[in-house]
Amino acid sequence: MKDSKKEGIRRDIRARYGEIASNQGSCGCSSNCCSTPSFIGKNPSDLGYSAIEVSSVIAGADMGLGCGNPNAIAELQAGEWVLDLGCGGGFDCFLAALRVGASGRVIGVDMTPEMLTKARENARKGEYHNVEFRLGEIEHIPVADASVNVVISNCVINLSPDKAQVFRDTFRVLRENGRLAVSDIVAVKPLPASILEDPDAVSGCVAGAALVNDVKNMLQEAGFVDISVDLREESARFIRDWFPGSGAEEYVRSAVITARKPRIGEAG
């Protein structure tokens, strides 16, 4: 993909999610969600969040933009440093902050200034002192080499026009034996042109989905081991609601993606 096309995709996605943040909406992943009542107030339990998790975070942080619960698979420990790629309003960051405690640290990265403004205000209101938010693209993460224990992300990597670079840079920032724990949308078969060429499907977490084997290959080429892409078949139900009548649920699923950066000297 040419650099000009990649930047065009980023520009469109940045504008769309900036609009969502400015509207203070609680939307589904679809870019049409803010004007479609059926997306408003999507039940977090469908994505794997418990009632306790939802109630433990400041109201307004959950914008309904995810497709799973990365914290449920990250096995976070007290004192760990966590990086959230595409942090949005900060919901997953705040959940992570509660798990790693005062001795840990959470860094949220997002390329949309409006999202960061919302996340920082949420952090101030909720008094999350072990969380910070940085402006940047997930292909070029504004975090030092080998500085975090865990990288999480929720329905964001599929939006990147250069996923291989996302995984390479994720590998760079992880410490030895660091973990990747991601909820994302993946393709179970090649997408038709009617979806690939739909701008709403691009910014709505569908058209950019990579095939399962391609995700595994990109992770392996980046250097990761213990790679797993576990499909959530039940996700077809809520994906159907993102683009009614499009048949998107026939081609994509939410997946739990995990991997690990090997220890120094460990065979890959």
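Next protein, fold it too.
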Amino acid sequence: TTYGGSSLFGLINGMNEIKPDGPYNNKSYSVNAFGNQIWIAPGEILDNNAPLQNADGFSHFNGSKWIHNTSEEMLGAKDIVDIEVNPNDSTEIYVSSWFEHISWGSGESTHIGMFKFKNGQMVEHYNSENSGIKFRERIGGSYMDEEGNLWIGQTVVEPGFKTYMIRKTAGGNWESIDLLASAPNAGARKPIVYQGFGFLPLPRENSGLKVTDMQTVYTINSSPETGNLPSSEVLSAAIDKDGVLWIGTILGLRVLYNPIEAVQSGSFQAEPIIIEQAGIPEALLTDVSITDIQVDGANQKWVATDTGGAYCFSEDGTQTIHHFTAENSPLPSNTVYKLKVESTTGVVYFATDKGVVSYRSDAVNAGDSFGDVYSYPNPVRPGFTGDVTIKGLPNDADVRIVDVVGNLVFKTKASGGVAKWNTKNMNGKLVASGIYLVLMTNQDASQTKQTKIAIVR
């Protein structure tokens, strides 16, 4: 039997390819997930927004195996930097390319842009010749809102190296608006959408975060009257469950309350999250480059950085719940490009310069009804010092823990489908060994549940 070693297809044995079932390689710039499916985009955007001409296509885990979608399937497209999944149909995805031509300076006439895939097959190609996308087609990412409108961030638009927000409506109409970026090649990233407004981070000098309803353009930057950010080089943004805008710059983090009303007011300032270090108040993540921000089902904030790994912060940002680094966790690198919180499972995916890893968190997007309620660990054995987690709860469910004779031991509210108990009573002391009842009621008291937790000291 003869085996050959290849650079692209693993070991070759006749017509067979022998290789691990995994992504095509460890290159990962962004990651998306829907249920048990995962998509990895291996392209990268350099600090100066230049393309790398990465021709590795993208990888897709379909729930049972990994599939490599090649560059050739997308007319030779390079630098795939973002994959957006239709939230109403996971068989439909939109693939963004950062490299606008197959080959610079060769006279090549194929304009790349974006691709629509359906059931794993490319079915649409959008560029300046057949859609509302502009020339030159350098796409930083896209976002599909709940109404089915696809928002697209595009930069290096000729003439003048302008930056645009493009929107393809659910009805198939194309709209566009010049975002009036102050720097040529402002470097559009993946947009987010809130209340009919698109938010587009622009990482080049003084470009800031652009906000538009496709009629008017607003800017959030370092100017005292329009945001007072620590830097106008904005890499990321997210809207949390309370409608607060979280902004990630190359010099730290800021939040803006009531963002639509604020930008329309004409004068506003974003605020730092103030924490206390050794008794001294300071801004959270000062002088740290914030590459991505995601919000989970409990309204906790997951923050990626370019050199410091990834964080999980409490709802208001004042408490650090997790700080994952290459030194204290399986995270392969402290350079984390993008995050993705899968809302139904609570799994958090980390795209780094050395591959993708995941962490199974507790918080999910919960509804108004109970799911499969269970607690863990159960029983709680001697020596355990953490929290007991109760899952499967509706949002804001009332949770009360009582002993076998009905005395109230602990009470809390569920957040993100989860409640936690530190096995202490209302006075802050560890409870004794025994069986404890967990009594749960949803927000309008129309449903109740109960379960038991065994404590062994």
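About the second fold: The mean pLDDT is 93.
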